Here is the input.
Amino acid sequence: MLSDKILDVCAYHRRDFDLVLVRSRPHDTQAVLASLQNACQACPASSLGSLDSLPTELLCIILRDLDVLSYFQFRHVNRRACALATTAHEYQSVARHGLEGLRGLLRAGLAPLFTMGDLYSPLIREECVLCGSFGGFLFLPTVTRCCIACIQTSPDLRVMCTSTFSRLAKISTRRLRRVLGSELRTVPGSYSMLDKRTRRPKHLIAVQTATAKLEQLGILDQDRSRALLSWDEQEGRQFMASTAFPWYDPHNGQVDDGISCKGCQVRFENRLEVGVADDRDRVFSRSSYLSHFQSCTEAQELWTQSEGGTKAVWEPEFTRRGGFFNELDSDGLPR
Here is the structure.
């Protein structure tokens, strides 16, 4: 198809965005893929006890209401439970297409707060909840579909070190954890596009969500709320609470990781106009990129040079690398 050829020549995936967020190491992911996505083929030797008296449809409804951690615990009861849980539609979709979101919740200690349905809903949503552009990422504390620009700048996605939040709110850390009932446990990662490591606290709190809950309970006054919402937290913390999360279209079975424009990178390097940095950092769905292509002179020039996708053309080193990072270590993480 012509559209596929245009995408091959003029678009690319910004892998550096994926690498600076919560991310599983490739060899760890490969080791669990088969067990996550498939049930044991052997016939079940045990039943579910009294649960087997319920119709399968009712059991599936019960499973949909289980939080993610309980879902996995049920899945490990026996072969019968594993087969039932694995074949559920929402689970199959998330395990195959939204694995980073699923593993991210488990690793961050947030799995008891959300169901498979909570993960499935953003998986089949294309747009960022906050700005409406294509959203190729997931904010873990609220399982919100979002874009990279909102992760970097939106106050709705701000996170704060638990100890800092406790100090500004003038509430003991113990009481804060008891009232909120959850916090994000950070996991190892780079979390910076610069050649330096960002200091990683042990726990983070979603500022907007926590502040709203404390205000509702009458624990926070307006002065402390303003102090929390205006605090300038260290750059990169929001990356520790987000992960890459492709869009899955259940109507055609297609998965879209998001693509960026090579032409916009060419224009950025040539510095032909103000504001091109924002353009080169935009992420599109495959369909929305084709609309962008119609207005991007540099992308059209690349297409012309390729003679309809039949010739290799020059492109910036940045787009060949897929972003800022030049080398990856043995685990596929940026050096």
Q: What stands out?
A: The CA atoms of residues 266 and 272 lie 9 Å apart. Residues 26-37 form the longest helix (12 residues). The chain is about 45% helix and 10% strand.
